[in-house]
Design brief:
This protein has 457 residues and is of the alpha/beta class. The strands form 3 sheets. The protein has a 6-stranded antiparallel beta sheet, sandwiched between helices. It has a 5-stranded parallel beta sheet with strand order 11-10-12-13-14, sandwiched between helices. The protein has 4 domains: 94 residues, PAS domain (Beta-Lactamase), CATH 3.30.450; 104 residues, 2-Layer Sandwich (Beta-Lactamase), CATH 3.30.450; 72 residues, Helix Hairpins, CATH 1.10.287; 124 residues, Rossmann fold, CATH 3.40.50. 46% of the residues lie in helices and 21% in strands.
Length: 457
């Protein structure tokens, strides 16, 4: 029997198209003809289920509105059998649920817009009942911590585990205050991603009543503020750099003044001394005192600058007091490897004018490391003074080559250099230099150190 033959007319108060219903109702075929084409398979499936199983069935169906658009309906039918057990008739209801569907659509669109805003802004949403161990996180809360996870319940222990160790205590205390005081909460903190990346997050929350149970709940949002923190740090670094630059400029200006003052005395009185105009010896001595004092002022300034540049003092340690003096009858051979003729002349004049060393030391000066190795091999000096910056090699390389000479492994070598940084001194001592004397030469320290080394067996 066809559906249209065994289905009685469908009686409704008004036509689905907005017209008055026929007193005899609509036929099933007429009703189905007005259904949205996409919904018709669903309607037929619901009818066949009821026909074949006798179980109630329902279907959502759209019908055209008179002014355009679609009316959403929910229909539900049951089958009534005759005495012979065969289907006799169908009874059902049809409800207009257009308003409900529209509200659902609006809610879905709102949720979709919120989701788009969350993705664009990187917002995570969380909620939790006051005093409870667990809180609900959406998937964006996990993304902010470098974790892929669907929305789920999170324990406080897990939540704290994502935090930077230095922020865990203060965040735990802040959550405790939020539970007990119920005040709005805002905080910025660091989280550590699984790959070790550290990010800054901001979180804001408000205590309010749950819309269903009325119980106090925390509702909050979180977002990434790493870029803002980096920008603030860059601003602070820039301000610090500008302050340091200003301080450096002031320091250099002051240092320029402090250096030029003694240099003026040294250069001025030196020029006066070079004039042959019959000046008195007492006047010469006074001018020389001024030159020496200016030189000492410069040395103090240089030492102060070195102390600023390194944590350790670069000033040489005072040598031990001499225990013996060189035997005047057998001058000790001292080789000085120095390419600056003025420095070489200064040492020569110092030894020549010293009452003991002028006869106790035989000095020989060469200008290159290559020549120094050759002279050392042939002359066999008792002590070698080495300038650390030579034209053909540095002092460390020269020392290594001298040590390879036959019988030279115990001959003391002293670095005599204007390089006074602590790293330079440490490297020279580690390489095996017996001592490290810095320029400008302090006459008393130089002669005492020379006598001490020459007196060693």
């Amino acid at each position: 029997m066809a559906d249209s033959d065994r289905d009685p007319p469908t009686h409704v108060p008004d036509g689905l198209d907005g017209t008055r219903a026929d007193p005899d109702g609509y036929a099933v075929a007429q009703t189905r003809a007005q259904a949205h084409p996409e919904d018709l398979p669903r309607v037929l499936a619901a009818y066949e289920k009821c026909r074949d199983t006798g179980e109630p069935s329902e279907a959502l169906t759209r019908y055209p509105r008179p002014g355009g658009g679609w009316r959403h309906t929910l229909s539900r039918r049951i089958r009534r059998d005759g005495p012979d057990g065969m289907p006799e008739t169908y009874l059902g209801v049809m409800i207009d649920i257009s308003d409900i569907v529209e509200r659902q659509r609006e809610a879905a669109e709102a949720a979709h817009r919120i989701g788009l805003a969350q993705s664009a802004l990187g917002l995570g949403i969380w909620s939790g009942q006051a005093g409870e161990e667990f809180a609900w996180w959406d998937e964006h809360m996990f993304r902010l911590r470098g974790v892929a996870s669907p929305a789920r319940q999170v324990s406080r222990t897990e939540a704290l585990g994502y935090l930077h160790p230095d922020d865990r205590v203060r965040l735990a205390q802040a959550h405790l205050e939020l539970d007990t005081q119920g005040k709005p909460w805002q905080f910025e903190f660091r989280v550590v991603w699984p790959d070790g990346t550290v990010r800054w997050l901001a979180s804001r929350s408000q205590m309010m009543a749950d819309p269903v149970t009325g119980a106090p709940h925390h509702f909050g949002v979180a977002w990434d503020v790493t870029d803002a923190h980096l920008a603030q740090q860059a601003l602070r670094d820039g301000e610090r750099a500008r302050a340091e630059s200003a301080a450096k400029s002031q320091f250099m200006s002051r240092m320029s003044h402090e250096l030029r003052t003694p240099l003026n005395a040294i250069l001025g009185f030196t020029q006066l001394l070079k004039r042959a105009d019959g000046r008195e010896p007492a006047q010469e001595a006074l001018w020389l005192d001024h030159v020496e004092e200016a030189g000492r002022q410069l040395l103090v300034l240089f030492n102060d600058m070195l102390e600023l540049a390194t944590a350790d003092s670069a000033a040489p340690q005072p040598p031990d007091a001499p225990t013996h003096t060189a035997d005047a009858a057998a001058p000790a051979r001292v080789l000085y490897i120095e390419d600056n003729p003025v420095n070489a002349l200064l040492v020569e004049e110092l030894l020549r004018t010293h009452p003991q060393l002028r006869t106790a030391v035989q000095l020989r000066v060469v200008a290159t490391g290559t020549e120094g190795i050759d002279v050392a091999a042939r002359w066999q000096p008792a002590l070698v003074l080495v300038d650390m910056q030579l034209p053909d090699m540095d002092g460390l390389e020269l020392h290594r080559r001298l040590r390879r000479l036959p019988g030279f492994d115990r001959t003391p070598c002293v670095a005599l250099s204007a390089n006074a940084m602590s790293d330079d001194v440490d490297m020279a001592r580690a390489a095996g230099f017996a001592d490290y004397w810095t320029k400008p030469i302090q006459f008393d320290d130089f002669t005492c150190g020379l006598q001490r080394l020459l007196a060693q067996p």
